[in-house]
Amino acid sequence: MENGIYIEDVQAGSLAEEVGIQPGDYLLSVNCSYPRDILEYKEAILASQISLEYRDSNGQTHQVTLAKDPYTELGLSFATSLFNGVRRCQNNCQFCFVRQLPQGLRASLYVKDDDYRLSFLEGSFVTLTNWTEEDYQRVISSRLSPLYISVHTLNPVLRRSLMGNHKSSQIKENLERLAAAGIQYHLQLVLIPGVNDGVELERSIQEIGALGSACLSLGAVPVGLTQYREGLPLLRTFTGEEAGRVIETIKAWQARFYQERGQRLIYAADEFYLLANLPIPRDQEYEGYPQLENGIGLVRLFWDSFTADFKPPSKLSQNYLLVTGVSGVKALQPIYLALPSYLQGQIRLVTVPNKFLGESVTVTGLLGGKDIVNTLMEWRQHGYGTDWTVIIPKIIFNQAGLTLDGWKVENLIQKSGFSIKIIDQTGSDLAKLLSES
Question: Does the pLDDT of residue 365 top 60, yes or no?
Fold first, then answer.
């Protein structure tokens, strides 16, 4: 904030443009105050007269005063929503994914954020372990609701052990305080077999249910473990049988909650169903998909959107290789098998094992570029050539167009020799692509 807030864009015809503010300038103050984030900025401009101080790209400082309707935006867009920087995680979780990454990746991958502002603005999960009294007061007074909170367990001793932070043991009291103030939240349990499943899972669900309407949803997801765990506690992933028991527990509680409050409340990640080879729940059982970004309901939404938008052509104009992870192929296979037989001959599912992070990591979004290329080269050796087009889901790439291990699409094309199409990871996008062929 010392250097100002970088202005990335200025809306054409806006008040900001009228007073001469341009992209590349820096906002220094609003009404003589220095907003720490986009939330304070929006509160500050909610007035009929605004005093702005900004510095242009030539280093010249300007002060302007605007008269406006209180609800009219100024037309400024910023490069970040957190002007004073992201708040970092202070925990030392046994299962922290960032601590399981190899060295040498891009710096942003090693940033562990735990910022309640991102929780409210973007749905990022926070742990409540780094909150001050000022944070509680701000959340409550500004009605920053709903929040997304990682719980893992409400057993204070177990949570402190899992998260390596003595402040983590106060989770139940913290949730109750927020609930009493009218703040609602979506909660998450990252489950580890033999640690916080079984009896501990039952305890967590029961105590979270007692929070009442403050809890909008509870998601249960399996722990993700890479091969880079040297020096970290010995943990393991779920077996299919154990995943089935988790689902059994969750289904029992869903039935109870539905009878008591007309809502299932708790939902299991798709990965549990795929691992246990159990049917994916119906659309209505996800009750609006409150934790879709947590991998809960993605498969059902994919299937249903594909079915709704797919119109079988008489023939595909191209042959397709659909790249997916080990768990992703289980989601794609039912769609593939439901296709007319004359289309199945023009489509192949390409399962890419994750050698980069370890084969226990099965989700498609964490595939590395090198693994994709190596798998495609194996297919090439088995006779698949330039008459086949590779389809890769966009989720494999970040906003800069890079895979986890730093590969761009152009690199994949050059190394594999295949033409490649990138599509969003939705059934609708795949359906439209195949329907138009």
Answer: yes
Collapsed DSSP state (helix, strand, coil) of residue 44: helix
**Is the backbone peptide bond immediately before 102 cis, with ω within 30 degrees of 0?**
no
Q: How far apart are CA 406 and CA 311, in angstroms?
A: 36
267, β-bridge pairs: 219
- Pairwise CA distance, residues 161 & 399, whole Å: 35
**Residue 436 pLDDT:** 76
Taking 80 as the threshold, does the pLDDT of residue 384 lie above it? yes
pLDDT of residue 1 exceeding 60, the answer is no
- CB-count exposure of residue 331 (10 Å: 0-12, 13-18, 19+): buried
**Which residues make Cβ contacts (< 8 Å) with residue 398, sequence separation at least 6?**
none
- % residues pLDDT > 90 (the chain): 92
- DSSP states of 298-354: HHHHHHHHHHHH----SS-SSEEEEEE-HHHHHHHHHHHHHS-HHHHTTEEEEE---
**Closest of 386, 315, 382, 305 to residue 344, by C-alpha:** 315
- Tell me how far CA of residue 279 lies from CA of 142, 275, 350, in angstroms: 42, 11, 23
Please state the rounded mean pLDDT for residues 31-44.
Answer: 94
Q: How many CA atoms lie within 13 A of 207 on its CB side?
A: 18
Residue 280 to residues 72, 93, 218, Cα–Cα distance (Å): 46, 30, 18
Give the chain's mean pLDDT. Answer: 94
Residue 47 contacts residue 72 (beta carbons within 8 Å) = no
DSSP state of 37: B
Average pLDDT over residues 344-363: 95
Q: CA 271 to CA 197: how far, in whole Å?
A: 15
Around Cβ 63, how many Cβ atoms within 10 Å? 11
CA atoms of 235 and 242, how far apart (whole Å): 14
Nearest Cα neighbor of 78 from 111, 125, 114, 45 is 45
Tell whether the model's pLDDT for residue 380 goes beyond 70.
yes
Q: Give dist(CA 163, CA 295) in Å, integer.
A: 22
